[in-house]
Amino acid sequence: MSKKLVLIILSVIEVLLCVSLIVRLAKHTPKAERITSCTELPERCMNSFEKELYQKSVEVLKRVSQREQDCLGGVALELSALPENAEELENSTEKVRFFLRKYVPEYTYWADSIWLSDIYGEMYIGYRPSPVYMSDGIYSYGEYGYLKKDAVETAQKAFDNAKRIAAKYEKKSDYEKVCGYAEEICKAVKYDENAADTEDFSSTDIRPWRIVSVFDDDPETNVVCEAYGQAFEYLCGLGGIECYYVSGEMGGGSHGWNTVVLDGVSYFTDITACDTANYTDAEISLKHPFILEKVADVTTDGFKSGHMKMSSYYYDEYTYGESAKRFLPEEALLVSTKSYRTATPIIVLIILDAATIALVVWRFAKK
After folding, report:
1. From CA 123, how far away is CA 57, in angstroms rounded?
2. CB atoms within 10 A of CB 134
3. What is the pLDDT of residues 89-128, one digit of tens each?
4. Phi, psi of 245 (to 5 degrees)
5. Nearest CA to 151 among 66, 63, 39, 208?
6. Minimal CA–CA distance to 149: which of 161, 139, 136?
């Protein structure tokens, strides 16, 4: 067999392998159902009663947040029926409350507390606003008990800013969106050490815990981990990416972070760590530390995370809180032990390899 024929056969095999790999990668990537906001995500792990309770509650909270309804007291919810089993009813209301507090930021930025209760066979949603959102303080009806107008306008501008950020990355890949969102958040705010050290939450300004302070363009309003995580979750929701806010402990202290689902696999992401580990914006843009990173010793109770920085090594143990373990889907807890890597570089290398062989064959054939 001539050398020319051998090279031609090798070239054909290389091209076929390249095509085969591309097809296999395309088939392997699950076509996950897209979302349009993080508010939609909780319904994926709810039964029919919980979905109805959740949806009706979101409607009420939305009206309050837009000053279409008073923000003191509560509202009776018109539901099809309540579970007959008392334990089932209690578990369902706790689950819905958990998601209302963490997955509806656009409508709960003002709330100091939210609760659900069964009163004589009728379900009520109750809520209390933070004093900073009340016209004349928490114990006064102020302007007929509605949220402070200028505070609502500030919140709306902040969410409009968030939507502009999401639109900026609209045509990017999911991986590029995730990295871009993290960069935008880290540029917008700093970690609020004073708020993080607060022990008396009964009279605390809730804004460092709310994502309004991430997107309000005010350098004086900075945030703690909860706002970092929920702001990232919010942007991911706008970008159609499945992302869960997760709370628990890191190294023995209270903390909040995220699980991001890409190509059907769950990955650990901690935006707060990116912003508090003394990384520059350029380093975050280049390396994306703590974003879609691998972890070890993964269970439904937690995992261990280690990350190499230029001058040191970070190692922390993350433990899920009881509510996260009870109400989040298992796949949100069992994060990957491998870092996310796009398939694009592999495909490009194989194509270049195949093109090189083809070029050699062509030049050989001309001789």
Report:
1. 10
2. 24
3. 999 999 999 999 999 999 999 999 999 999 888 999 999 9
4. -85, 130
5. 66
6. 136
269-282 pLDDT tens trace: 999 988 877 666 66
DSSP 240: T
- The CA distance from 131 to 121, in Å, is 32
In this prediction, residue 357 has a pLDDT band, given cuts at 50, 70 and 90, of low
Torsion of CA 84, 85, 86, 90, to 10 degrees: -100
Which pair of tokens denotes residue 237?
């929701």
The answer for residues whose C-beta is within 8 angstroms of residue 85's C-beta and 6 or more apart is none
Whether the per-residue pLDDT at 201 is higher than 60: the answer is no
- Rg of the chain (C-alpha set): 25
Question: Would you tell me how many other CB atoms lie within 10 Å of the CB of residue 364?
Answer: 12
Residues 6+ apart with CB under 8 A from 261: 32, 241, 242, 243, 244, 267, 331, 332
Helices (H), the chain: 3-28, 48-65, 86-103, 105-108, 149-168, 174-188, 193-196, 212-215, 225-238, 271-276, 281-287, 322-327, 330-333, 344-366
**pTM exceeds 0.85, yes or no:** no
- pLDDT recorded at residue 141: 46
The amino acid that residue 233 corresponds to is E
Domains of the chain: 13-30+345-366 (no CATH), 31-37+160-342 (3.10.620), 46-144 (3.30.1370)
